[in-house]
Amino acid sequence: MPKLRVDSFTISLDGYAVGPNQRLDAPFGDGTEGLHDWMFATRTARAGQGLDGGEDGLDDERVARHGEGAGATIMGRNMFGPFRGPWEDESWKGWWGDNPPYHNDVFVLTHHERPTFHLEGGNVFHFVDATPGAVLKEAFAAAGGKDVLLAGGAATIRQFLRAGLVDELNLVIAPILVGGGERLFEDLDDALQRYEVTEMISSKTVTHVRLARRADPAPDA
Amino acid sequence: MPKLRVDSFTISLDGYAVGPNQRLDAPFGDGTEGLHDWMFATRTARAGQGLDGGEDGLDDERVARHGEGAGATIMGRNMFGPFRGPWEDESWKGWWGDNPPYHNDVFVLTHHERPTFHLEGGNVFHFVDATPGAVLKEAFAAAGGKDVLLAGGAATIRQFLRAGLVDELNLVIAPILVGGGERLFEDLDDALQRYEVTEMISSKTVTHVRLARRADPAPDA
Question: What is the pLDDT of residues B54-99, one digit of tens each?
């Protein structure tokens, strides 16, 4: 069965995915310096930027596998861009330049729809005002039997967790203290009772954690 | 210089030190089953209970070093017992039986003072209504040049962090999802800017993390 997966979603030791005041020149908000250094330091990430060298090993394996086998992507509107509310214009095409790293159909959850657009590398951005379940159905259809990657951000992942739709949640805990902002583990009611931690392993730099659905869920989950 | 240390204070993956509804028959509250299993499974903890066997390695090393070299202890009143408000009687002597594991002067922070009492093994419990700074001064005096162990709970550690008094904070992240309760990393204002993560390492079971004061603190910390 194809899965809805979160891959290497990074949170700080104190639990924050982003700091306060996200904006165009600080996509992850204040106090998040270093949060994703583990990723940029890998051989795979460096190669993607045309650079030699970089870290091998566990972190690199995880970066290399990010989105592997996924045939569609879902993200929240706040991950797509720094703007909130109605689109002032539609010139913003995301943070990722002409050839974003998704290479499939990307469904952006938003209350403010806009026309689908195409970028290089098979990237097609759709804007959908729908429930998590309805978007996921569309994404699975687009994925043609492959997994769907739930890219983020934290609020969108929480929304899918609360709806019981996430099959596998791969997290990275970075040794950074952000001090405030948006948490992943917040307002989840009993949603986490459906999950168990199936892996917790440290590289030299960060800790990788995998949550998967319980084979035997708690009685009231 | 003697330090104020927190040793192997365990939090869940989602950040909770205790769940909701702490009470006499559930000292860590609801949903915390397994939170301290890593500790009870070690050779050192088992030997303390007269049992053979147990896990060696990193977890065991940390349990063996818990409180090592400390000459006094500080804890919050909610760690000392499940009762809140004025003492109804003074028969409660803590969770630890006749010979608690501290073996030194234990200062219990409380707004409801009661007489000092002595237990076996050099355990002397004092009840102090004072600021963190004043209690720490007393504890350092009692420790006679040794470190002071800040035992917990979360609210008490936060209080000492906010006051800038903690020198070293050793945490354990357990692969458990509690879903609610009391967080360690909450309401700390800018206190964490004084700290950096100096170690993050996984055993088979948990992740050990050390926070220490920054040699070069952030300008506004």
Answer: 999 999 999 999 999 999 999 999 999 998 999 998 999 999 999 9
Res. A221: pLDDT tops 50? no
DSSP state, residue B14: T
ipTM over 0.90: yes
Residues 6 or more apart from A1 whose CB is under 8 A from it? none
**Rounded CA gap, B4 and B184, in Å?**
17
Contact A186, A216 (CB under 8 A): no
What does the alpha-carbon distance between residue B9 and residue B18 come to, in Å, rounded to a whole number? 11
Please give the model's pTM, rounded to 2 decimal places.
0.94
Q: A131, A96 in Cβ contact below 8 A?
A: no
Question: Could you tell me the domains of chain B?
Answer: 4-18+29-81+98-213 (3.40.430.10)
DSSP-derived secondary structure letter, B192: G
List Cβ neighbours of B111 (8 Å cut-off, separation of 6 or more): B77, B129
CA distance A125 to A113: 11
**Contact residues, chain B to chain A, C-beta under 8 Å:** 13-15, 173, 175-177, 179, 183, 185, 188-190, 192-193, 195-197, 200-202, 205-207, 209, 211
The amino acid at residue B101 is P
**A193/chain B closest Cα distance in angstroms:** 7
Predicted confidence band of residue A217 (pLDDT cuts 50, 70, 90): low
CB contact under 8 A, B206 and A196: no
Q: Which parts of B49-154 are beta strand (E)?
A: 70-76, 105-109, 117-118, 124-128, 147-152
Q: Look at residue B218 and tell me whether its pLDDT is greater than 90.
A: no
**DSSP symbols for chain A:** ---EEEEEEEEETTSEEE-S--BTTBTT-TT-TTTTHHHHTBHHHHHHTT----B-SHHHHHHHTTTTTEEEEEEEHHHH-S--SS-S-S----SSTTS-S--SEEEEE-SS----EE-GGG-EEEEE-S-HHHHHHHHHHHHTTSEEEEEE-HHHHHHHHHTT--SEEEEEEES----SSEESSSS-TTGGGGEEEEEEEE-SS-EEEEEEE-SS--TT-
d(CA B217, CA B221): 6
pLDDT in tens, A19-57: 999 999 999 999 999 999 999 999 999 999 999 999 999
- What is the Cα gyration radius of chain A? 17
